Task: structure prediction
Amino acid sequence: MKRKILLTLMVVIVLSIAMPLSGCQSQPASSGGESSAQTEDRSEDEYIYVSAMGNLEFFNAHKYGWQWAGDNLGVKASYVGPAEYDMNAMVAAFDQAIARNPKGIAVFAVEPILEPSIDKAVDAGIPVVTILGDLPNTKRLAFVGSFQYDLGYVGGQNLAEALGGEGKVAILSIPGVGMFDDREEGYRAAFENYPGIEVVQVGDTKADTVTSVNTAKDIMQRFPDLAAFAATDSTGGIGAATAVEELDRVGEVKIVSMDRNSDVLEKIREGVVTGTVAQNDAAMAYWALLTLYTDNYNQAPLTSDNAAAGVNPGPSQVFMAVNYVDESNLDYFLEANEIYVP
Result:
Protein backbone atom coordinates (compact mmCIF):
# COMPACT_ATOMS: atom_id res chain seq x y z
CA MET A 1 0.00 0.00 0.00
CA LYS A 2 2.84 2.40 0.93
CA ARG A 3 4.48 1.89 -2.47
CA LYS A 4 1.18 2.32 -4.35
CA ILE A 5 0.51 5.62 -2.59
CA LEU A 6 4.03 6.86 -3.31
CA LEU A 7 3.78 5.90 -6.97
CA THR A 8 0.45 7.73 -7.24
CA LEU A 9 1.96 10.83 -5.67
CA MET A 10 4.92 10.64 -8.04
CA VAL A 11 2.59 10.58 -11.06
CA VAL A 12 0.63 13.56 -9.76
CA ILE A 13 3.81 15.54 -9.06
CA VAL A 14 5.36 14.83 -12.45
CA LEU A 15 2.15 15.64 -14.32
CA SER A 16 1.74 18.90 -12.45
CA ILE A 17 5.28 20.14 -13.06
CA ALA A 18 5.43 18.83 -16.62
CA MET A 19 2.50 20.91 -17.91
CA PRO A 20 3.68 22.83 -20.98
CA LEU A 21 5.65 25.91 -20.01
CA SER A 22 5.26 29.02 -22.13
CA GLY A 23 8.29 30.65 -20.54
CA CYS A 24 6.06 33.43 -19.24
CA GLN A 25 5.40 35.05 -15.88
CA SER A 26 2.07 34.08 -14.33
CA GLN A 27 -0.04 37.08 -13.32
CA PRO A 28 -1.51 37.36 -9.81
CA ALA A 29 -4.99 35.88 -9.53
CA SER A 30 -6.48 39.20 -8.48
CA SER A 31 -4.94 41.25 -11.28
CA GLY A 32 -7.08 39.92 -14.08
CA GLY A 33 -4.01 40.06 -16.32
CA GLU A 34 -3.15 37.45 -18.93
CA SER A 35 0.27 35.80 -19.41
CA SER A 36 2.27 37.10 -22.34
CA ALA A 37 4.99 35.36 -24.31
CA GLN A 38 8.51 35.68 -22.92
CA THR A 39 10.62 38.24 -24.76
CA GLU A 40 13.20 38.88 -22.05
CA ASP A 41 16.70 37.55 -22.60
CA ARG A 42 17.57 35.37 -19.59
CA SER A 43 20.87 34.05 -20.90
CA GLU A 44 22.74 35.82 -18.09
CA ASP A 45 20.64 34.20 -15.39
CA GLU A 46 22.96 31.79 -13.57
CA TYR A 47 21.94 28.56 -11.85
CA ILE A 48 24.61 26.68 -9.93
CA TYR A 49 24.86 22.96 -9.12
CA VAL A 50 26.99 22.40 -5.98
CA SER A 51 28.31 18.88 -5.54
CA ALA A 52 31.23 16.76 -4.40
CA MET A 53 33.01 13.72 -5.85
CA GLY A 54 32.96 15.29 -9.28
CA ASN A 55 35.83 12.99 -10.27
CA LEU A 56 33.42 10.02 -10.30
CA GLU A 57 31.95 8.98 -13.64
CA PHE A 58 28.53 8.90 -11.97
CA PHE A 59 28.42 12.70 -11.96
CA ASN A 60 29.18 13.00 -15.69
CA ALA A 61 25.50 12.46 -16.42
CA HIS A 62 24.56 15.12 -13.88
CA LYS A 63 26.96 17.63 -15.41
CA TYR A 64 25.62 16.82 -18.87
CA GLY A 65 21.97 16.99 -17.79
CA TRP A 66 22.53 20.28 -15.95
CA GLN A 67 24.13 21.89 -19.01
CA TRP A 68 21.47 20.39 -21.28
CA ALA A 69 18.79 21.92 -19.06
CA GLY A 70 20.48 25.31 -19.18
CA ASP A 71 20.69 25.19 -22.96
CA ASN A 72 17.03 24.22 -23.26
CA LEU A 73 15.85 26.95 -20.89
CA GLY A 74 18.21 29.61 -22.24
CA VAL A 75 20.08 30.21 -18.99
CA LYS A 76 23.63 29.80 -17.70
CA ALA A 77 24.18 26.47 -15.90
CA SER A 78 27.34 26.22 -13.76
CA TYR A 79 28.70 23.20 -11.88
CA VAL A 80 31.02 23.61 -8.86
CA GLY A 81 32.43 21.60 -5.96
CA PRO A 82 35.39 19.43 -4.95
CA ALA A 83 36.51 16.42 -6.94
CA GLU A 84 36.66 14.27 -3.80
CA TYR A 85 34.30 13.51 -0.92
CA ASP A 86 35.33 16.60 1.01
CA MET A 87 32.44 18.16 2.93
CA ASN A 88 34.39 21.18 4.15
CA ALA A 89 35.40 22.00 0.58
CA MET A 90 31.81 21.49 -0.54
CA VAL A 91 30.53 23.94 2.09
CA ALA A 92 33.14 26.45 0.90
CA ALA A 93 32.00 25.97 -2.71
CA PHE A 94 28.38 26.46 -1.63
CA ASP A 95 29.20 29.71 0.19
CA GLN A 96 31.11 30.95 -2.86
CA ALA A 97 28.08 30.11 -5.00
CA ILE A 98 25.86 32.20 -2.71
CA ALA A 99 28.25 35.14 -3.14
CA ARG A 100 27.61 35.01 -6.91
CA ASN A 101 23.91 35.69 -6.24
CA PRO A 102 22.58 33.15 -8.74
CA LYS A 103 18.92 32.70 -9.65
CA GLY A 104 18.96 29.30 -7.96
CA ILE A 105 21.15 26.54 -6.53
CA ALA A 106 20.88 22.77 -6.75
CA VAL A 107 22.91 20.91 -4.13
CA PHE A 108 23.83 17.28 -3.61
CA ALA A 109 22.50 17.21 -0.05
CA VAL A 110 24.58 14.33 1.20
CA GLU A 111 25.27 15.40 4.80
CA PRO A 112 23.70 17.71 7.44
CA ILE A 113 26.81 19.91 7.45
CA LEU A 114 25.24 21.59 4.40
CA GLU A 115 22.08 22.65 6.23
CA PRO A 116 23.31 26.11 7.38
CA SER A 117 24.45 26.97 3.85
CA ILE A 118 21.11 25.97 2.37
CA ASP A 119 19.23 28.18 4.82
CA LYS A 120 21.72 31.01 4.29
CA ALA A 121 21.06 30.91 0.54
CA VAL A 122 17.29 30.92 0.97
CA ASP A 123 17.48 33.79 3.46
CA ALA A 124 19.44 35.69 0.80
CA GLY A 125 16.57 35.19 -1.64
CA ILE A 126 18.16 32.32 -3.59
CA PRO A 127 15.89 29.26 -4.02
CA VAL A 128 17.60 25.93 -3.33
CA VAL A 129 16.67 22.49 -4.62
CA THR A 130 18.28 19.43 -3.08
CA ILE A 131 19.23 16.68 -5.52
CA LEU A 132 20.17 13.00 -5.10
CA GLY A 133 20.05 13.34 -1.31
CA ASP A 134 17.67 15.44 0.75
CA LEU A 135 17.87 17.59 3.89
CA PRO A 136 14.15 18.17 4.52
CA ASN A 137 14.65 20.14 7.74
CA THR A 138 16.08 23.07 5.80
CA LYS A 139 14.34 25.88 3.91
CA ARG A 140 14.96 24.18 0.59
CA LEU A 141 12.32 24.65 -2.08
CA ALA A 142 12.07 21.02 -3.16
CA PHE A 143 13.87 17.70 -3.41
CA VAL A 144 14.47 16.19 -6.85
CA GLY A 145 15.80 12.68 -7.03
CA SER A 146 15.16 9.02 -6.47
CA PHE A 147 13.07 7.58 -3.70
CA GLN A 148 16.02 5.89 -2.01
CA TYR A 149 13.97 3.02 -0.60
CA ASP A 150 12.79 2.15 -4.12
CA LEU A 151 16.36 1.94 -5.41
CA GLY A 152 17.11 -0.79 -2.90
CA TYR A 153 13.75 -2.50 -3.34
CA VAL A 154 14.17 -2.81 -7.12
CA GLY A 155 17.70 -4.12 -6.64
CA GLY A 156 16.53 -6.58 -4.01
CA GLN A 157 13.71 -7.92 -6.17
CA ASN A 158 16.03 -8.54 -9.11
CA LEU A 159 18.72 -10.12 -6.94
CA ALA A 160 16.20 -12.39 -5.22
CA GLU A 161 14.94 -13.59 -8.60
CA ALA A 162 18.51 -14.23 -9.79
CA LEU A 163 19.11 -16.32 -6.65
CA GLY A 164 15.93 -18.30 -7.08
CA GLY A 165 14.81 -16.98 -3.70
CA GLU A 166 17.55 -18.63 -1.63
CA GLY A 167 21.03 -17.86 -0.34
CA LYS A 168 23.18 -15.80 1.98
CA VAL A 169 23.57 -12.15 0.98
CA ALA A 170 25.96 -9.44 2.13
CA ILE A 171 25.12 -5.77 1.66
CA LEU A 172 27.93 -3.38 0.75
CA SER A 173 26.95 0.12 1.84
CA ILE A 174 27.95 3.31 3.65
CA PRO A 175 26.24 2.83 7.02
CA GLY A 176 25.16 5.91 8.90
CA VAL A 177 24.48 8.02 5.80
CA GLY A 178 20.71 8.42 5.43
CA MET A 179 20.32 7.86 1.70
CA PHE A 180 22.35 4.64 1.80
CA ASP A 181 20.56 3.40 4.91
CA ASP A 182 17.27 3.92 3.06
CA ARG A 183 18.54 1.84 0.14
CA GLU A 184 19.58 -0.91 2.53
CA GLU A 185 16.09 -0.82 4.02
CA GLY A 186 14.64 -1.26 0.52
CA TYR A 187 16.84 -4.30 -0.10
CA ARG A 188 15.79 -5.86 3.19
CA ALA A 189 12.11 -5.21 2.46
CA ALA A 190 12.40 -6.97 -0.90
CA PHE A 191 14.13 -9.95 0.74
CA GLU A 192 11.26 -10.32 3.23
CA ASN A 193 9.25 -11.84 0.39
CA TYR A 194 11.84 -14.62 0.13
CA PRO A 195 12.26 -16.57 3.41
CA GLY A 196 15.18 -18.47 1.92
CA ILE A 197 17.33 -15.33 1.69
CA GLU A 198 19.42 -14.31 4.71
CA VAL A 199 21.39 -11.06 5.08
CA VAL A 200 24.53 -12.17 6.92
CA GLN A 201 26.55 -8.94 7.04
CA VAL A 202 26.65 -5.27 6.07
CA GLY A 203 30.09 -4.13 4.92
CA ASP A 204 31.23 -0.50 4.96
CA THR A 205 32.82 0.53 1.66
CA LYS A 206 33.48 4.13 2.77
CA ALA A 207 32.69 5.05 -0.86
CA ASP A 208 36.20 3.85 -1.77
CA THR A 209 36.89 1.10 -4.31
CA VAL A 210 39.99 -0.31 -2.60
CA THR A 211 38.17 -0.47 0.74
CA SER A 212 35.21 -2.09 -1.00
CA VAL A 213 37.38 -4.80 -2.56
CA ASN A 214 39.00 -5.65 0.77
CA THR A 215 35.67 -5.61 2.61
CA ALA A 216 34.11 -7.94 0.04
CA LYS A 217 37.05 -10.34 0.28
CA ASP A 218 36.82 -10.43 4.07
CA ILE A 219 33.12 -11.23 3.88
CA MET A 220 33.64 -14.06 1.39
CA GLN A 221 36.32 -15.57 3.56
CA ARG A 222 34.05 -15.34 6.60
CA PHE A 223 31.12 -16.84 4.68
CA PRO A 224 32.46 -19.38 2.14
CA ASP A 225 28.90 -20.20 1.10
CA LEU A 226 27.98 -16.57 0.36
CA ALA A 227 25.55 -16.43 -2.57
CA ALA A 228 25.46 -12.73 -3.44
CA PHE A 229 26.43 -9.13 -2.82
CA ALA A 230 23.91 -6.29 -2.86
CA ALA A 231 25.52 -2.87 -3.31
CA THR A 232 24.00 0.49 -2.43
CA ASP A 233 26.49 2.41 -4.58
CA SER A 234 28.79 1.80 -7.54
CA THR A 235 31.96 1.43 -5.45
CA GLY A 236 30.31 -1.50 -3.69
CA GLY A 237 29.42 -3.05 -7.03
CA ILE A 238 32.85 -2.78 -8.64
CA GLY A 239 34.53 -3.72 -5.35
CA ALA A 240 32.47 -6.90 -5.13
CA ALA A 241 33.15 -7.69 -8.79
CA THR A 242 36.90 -7.32 -8.33
CA ALA A 243 36.87 -9.43 -5.17
CA VAL A 244 34.84 -12.19 -6.82
CA GLU A 245 37.25 -12.28 -9.77
CA GLU A 246 40.37 -12.33 -7.60
CA LEU A 247 38.99 -15.14 -5.41
CA ASP A 248 37.83 -17.10 -8.49
CA ARG A 249 34.15 -17.03 -7.53
CA VAL A 250 32.68 -15.62 -10.77
CA GLY A 251 29.32 -17.23 -11.42
CA GLU A 252 29.09 -18.54 -7.85
CA VAL A 253 28.51 -15.18 -6.17
CA LYS A 254 25.92 -12.95 -7.83
CA ILE A 255 26.18 -9.17 -7.65
CA VAL A 256 23.61 -6.41 -8.03
CA SER A 257 25.24 -2.99 -8.11
CA MET A 258 23.94 0.56 -8.02
CA ASP A 259 24.25 3.21 -10.74
CA ARG A 260 25.34 2.97 -14.35
CA ASN A 261 29.11 3.48 -14.25
CA SER A 262 30.86 2.08 -17.32
CA ASP A 263 33.10 -0.26 -15.30
CA VAL A 264 30.04 -1.83 -13.70
CA LEU A 265 28.27 -2.13 -17.06
CA GLU A 266 31.29 -3.85 -18.59
CA LYS A 267 31.26 -6.35 -15.71
CA ILE A 268 27.65 -7.13 -16.59
CA ARG A 269 28.74 -7.80 -20.17
CA GLU A 270 31.48 -10.13 -18.88
CA GLY A 271 29.02 -12.02 -16.68
CA VAL A 272 30.66 -10.96 -13.41
CA VAL A 273 27.87 -8.61 -12.28
CA THR A 274 24.23 -9.71 -12.58
CA GLY A 275 22.71 -6.24 -12.97
CA THR A 276 22.63 -2.74 -11.59
CA VAL A 277 20.00 -0.22 -10.50
CA ALA A 278 20.16 3.03 -12.47
CA GLN A 279 18.87 6.39 -11.35
CA ASN A 280 17.49 8.88 -13.87
CA ASP A 281 20.62 10.96 -13.44
CA ALA A 282 20.70 13.28 -16.47
CA ALA A 283 16.94 13.79 -16.29
CA MET A 284 17.22 14.43 -12.55
CA ALA A 285 19.52 17.40 -13.17
CA TYR A 286 17.10 18.74 -15.78
CA TRP A 287 14.11 18.56 -13.43
CA ALA A 288 16.11 20.25 -10.67
CA LEU A 289 16.91 23.24 -12.86
CA LEU A 290 13.37 23.31 -14.26
CA THR A 291 11.98 23.40 -10.72
CA LEU A 292 14.16 26.41 -9.89
CA TYR A 293 13.32 28.13 -13.19
CA THR A 294 9.61 27.56 -12.66
CA ASP A 295 9.80 29.04 -9.18
CA ASN A 296 11.36 32.18 -10.65
CA TYR A 297 9.22 32.65 -13.74
CA ASN A 298 6.25 30.30 -13.96
CA GLN A 299 4.60 30.15 -10.57
CA ALA A 300 0.92 29.31 -10.62
CA PRO A 301 -1.12 32.04 -8.86
CA LEU A 302 -1.93 30.09 -5.69
CA THR A 303 -2.48 33.45 -4.00
CA SER A 304 -2.62 37.06 -5.14
CA ASP A 305 1.05 37.35 -4.12
CA ASN A 306 2.81 34.04 -3.47
CA ALA A 307 6.02 35.59 -2.14
CA ALA A 308 4.23 37.90 0.30
CA ALA A 309 2.01 35.03 1.43
CA GLY A 310 5.05 32.84 2.03
CA VAL A 311 3.69 29.88 0.06
CA ASN A 312 5.31 27.34 -2.23
CA PRO A 313 3.01 26.81 -5.23
CA GLY A 314 5.19 24.08 -6.70
CA PRO A 315 6.11 20.52 -5.73
CA SER A 316 8.13 19.83 -2.61
CA GLN A 317 9.30 16.44 -3.89
CA VAL A 318 9.90 15.20 -7.43
CA PHE A 319 10.69 11.49 -7.48
CA MET A 320 12.34 10.04 -10.57
CA ALA A 321 11.66 6.57 -11.95
CA VAL A 322 13.98 3.65 -11.11
CA ASN A 323 15.51 1.54 -13.87
CA TYR A 324 17.28 -1.82 -13.87
CA VAL A 325 20.17 -2.57 -16.21
CA ASP A 326 21.24 -6.06 -17.27
CA GLU A 327 22.66 -7.71 -20.37
CA SER A 328 19.48 -6.91 -22.33
CA ASN A 329 19.87 -3.12 -22.28
CA LEU A 330 23.36 -2.24 -21.06
CA ASP A 331 24.60 -1.14 -24.51
CA TYR A 332 22.17 1.79 -24.54
CA PHE A 333 23.51 2.99 -21.21
CA LEU A 334 27.13 2.59 -22.32
CA GLU A 335 26.46 4.63 -25.46
CA ALA A 336 24.97 7.41 -23.33
CA ASN A 337 27.98 7.30 -21.01
CA GLU A 338 30.18 8.17 -23.99
CA ILE A 339 27.99 11.19 -24.71
CA TYR A 340 28.25 12.36 -21.09
CA VAL A 341 32.06 12.50 -21.04
CA PRO A 342 33.05 16.17 -20.44
About this structure: The chain has twelve helices and twelve strands.
